[in-house]
Amino acid sequence: MNIEEIKKLKTFDERYKYNIDEAVKTKEIKYKSGKIQKLRYLSWAYAHRIGKSIDENFSWKLLLNEKGSCIHDNTVIIEMKFEGKIEQLRYPFLDGRNQPISNPTGSDINDAQMRGMAKLFAMMSGIGLYLYTNEDIDKIGEETQATKTPKKTEKPKMTEEEKQEKKEKCIKWIVDNISKVEENKQADVLNNLDLLDLDNLELKELKIIYKNINKELEKGA
Predict the structure, then answer these.
(1) Residue ranges of region Disordered (predicted)?
(2) DSSP H helical segments within the chain, as ranges?
(3) Helix 135-148 and helix 160-177: axis angle, to 10°?
């Protein structure tokens, strides 16, 4: 990874496509189903260094609630200023299985704020954002599989609210990323549908479109 090369990247898309694999950290996730997945994400230290190199006014902080605590409903809230813009991100406290933690320790809080900082920087700058491409969709796939093969003692079912939430995640990802696909291929990856039609699709149909877009993004990376 070359800082001088990164400083020459001016557009979000150029930064998105820049390979930063040598600055990547890997976390192994073990799901309840037994599935093991390796999540890759940008090191917070590299994110901070890159941010300062591109924008000398780059800064970020952990927001406190009205009681002076950094815990907001089992999440932390990161606020970041980059290239004149200010954005916020909620990041949850997660255990080794990527499950929520209700009583976080100091170490859990530190992990959440640093990972949240790295993710928000990727979202604002584009650098390393490709590492998060499968994050929400993989969670959807894992949870969907769990509903198909429940334990004998329980029959977990996804509520309509949960289904709608996952649909909204897919739709948002599709809308945010379709512009990165070559214009002459956009109709094909959308299966000749208009973006306004996405709300009418089932989750499995949205995931097909997601895979189509992701395949094109990987070709261009």
Answers:
(1) 142-163
(2) 3-7, 12-17, 44-54, 106-125, 135-148, 160-177, 186-189, 203-220
(3) 150
Look over the chain and give the mean of its residue pLDDT values, rounded to a whole number: 83
Give me the domains of the chain, ranges plus CATH numbers.
1-127 (3.30.390), 133-221 (no CATH)
> What percentage of the chain carries pLDDT values higher than 70?
84
Contact 185, 149 (CB under 8 A): no
Burial 33-71 (b: 16+ CB within 10 A, else e): eeeeeebebbbbebbbbbbeebbeebebeeeeeeeeebb
Tokens representing 132 are: 């998060």
79, β-bridge pairs: 61, 88
Residue 181's nearest CA partner among 154, 150, 214, 152 is: 214
Q: What torsion do the CA atoms of 140, 199, 165, 191 make, to the nearest 10 degrees? A: 20
Q: How many CB atoms are closer than 10 A to CB 91? A: 19
State whether residue 87 is helix, strand or coil.
Answer: strand
What would the two tokens of residue 154 be?
A: 């329980």
Structure tokens at 18: 């820049």
Question: How many other β-carbons are positioned within 10 Å of the β-carbon of residue 126?
Answer: 19
In degrees rounded to 5, what are phi and psi of residue 27?
-125, 125
Instruction: Tell whether the model's pLDDT for residue 144 goes beyond 50.
Output: no
Per-residue confidence at 59, pLDDT binned at 50, 70, 90? very high
Dig out the tokens for 62 from the structure.
Answer: 């952990």
